[in-house]
Amino acid sequence: MERRKDISSVDATNKVISIRGLEKSFGTLAVLRGIDLDVYRGENVVVLGRSGTGKSVLIKIISGLLKADSGTVNVLGNEVDTLSGKELQALRLKIGFSFQNGALYDSMTVRGNLEFPLKRNVRNLSRKQIDSAVEEVLEGVGLAHAVDQMPSGLSGGQRKRIGIARTLILRPEVMLYDEPTAGLDPITSIEINNLINEVQQQYHTSSIIITHDLTCAKTTGNRVAMMLNGTFLHQGTFEEVFSSDDPAVKAFYEYNFIQ
User: Fold this and answer.
1) In this structure, are 47 and 153 located in the same domain?
2) What gap in Å lies between CA 131 and CA 161, rounded to an integer?
3) Is 68 a residue whose pLDDT tops 90?
4) Are 16 and 174 in contact (CB under 8 A)?
């Protein structure tokens, strides 16, 4: 069963991400056409749109994996395109990126996958501290029993959970979710949606959730920004966006929404 969102933790006076006039093209294909977006402390913002509308390009620019053609991106007080390589790496430690497929190392156990970012980025941790951190995030995603399993033995939903746990182990302030329910059955999708909300509350994260799944958008988003042809067609709560008489909004709703 999906759980009602708690919005009491959102601080509407504190922007953690601020984007203005963002543009990005690949050759003659304009993917982003003047994007403006703010994300506030403790808020989940869903960027909703069909495949190929520029949603994933947006979060790659936010994390510094792609460079914009024009516009500004400020994340946690840092202008991303002005950062040196070292400064960008430091910022990325505060940003958790949850990939569509979980992006786990198939040659490592679940424990190894979770230990890897800790050992790489946090020096002088004791064995006890590492074990405690692994145990905590696995309990947080409901998979403590899977600690010694190989990724090949996990279901798609379990792999997504472990991928989120690996991101959380560094205690990020910002979470970027790329199509978190893609390829999952309806029941597992509900579990992942609920987990996103639990992460928001337990870890006090601010998140951008990229999706074309309207159930995910309705369940996880404090606000929704609907993207079409590289721009935001509408922004607001799910109800505000989908109360519009805009034919493009109605067509998207009727085609995608699962009651």
Assistant:
1) no
2) 18
3) yes
4) yes
Domain count, the chain: 2
Q: Is the dihedral of CA 155, 158, 163, 169 positive or negative?
A: negative
Give the Cβ contact number of residue 67 at 10 Å. 11
Res. 254: pLDDT tops 50: yes
- Which tokens is 128 given? 């006890």
- Rounded distance between C-alpha atoms, residue 82 and residue 85, angstroms: 10
Alpha helix positions (H), the chain: 55-62, 85-92, 110-121, 127-140, 156-168, 186-203, 214-220, 238-242, 247-256
CB 222, CB 7: distance < 8 Å:
yes
Task: Based on the fold, state whether residues 78 and 194 are members of the same structural domain.
Answer: yes
Residue 223 near residue 237 (C-beta atoms within 8 A) = yes
Query: Which residues fall within 8 angstroms of residue 234, CB to CB, at 6 or more apart?
Result: 224, 225, 226, 240, 241, 244, 246, 249
Residues 181 and 77 in one domain: yes
Predicted confidence at residue 103, as pLDDT, reads: 78
- Determine contact, residues 47/41, Cβ cutoff 8 Å: no
- 188 shares its domain with 88: yes
By the 8 A CB rule, do 226 and 234 touch?
Answer: yes
> Which domain does 248 fall in, by range?
14-94+175-259
User: For the whole model, what pTM was predicted?
Assistant: 0.90
Q: Is residue 222 a contact partner of residue 197, using CB atoms and an 8 Å limit?
A: no
Q: Per the domain annotation, does 1 fall within a domain?
A: no
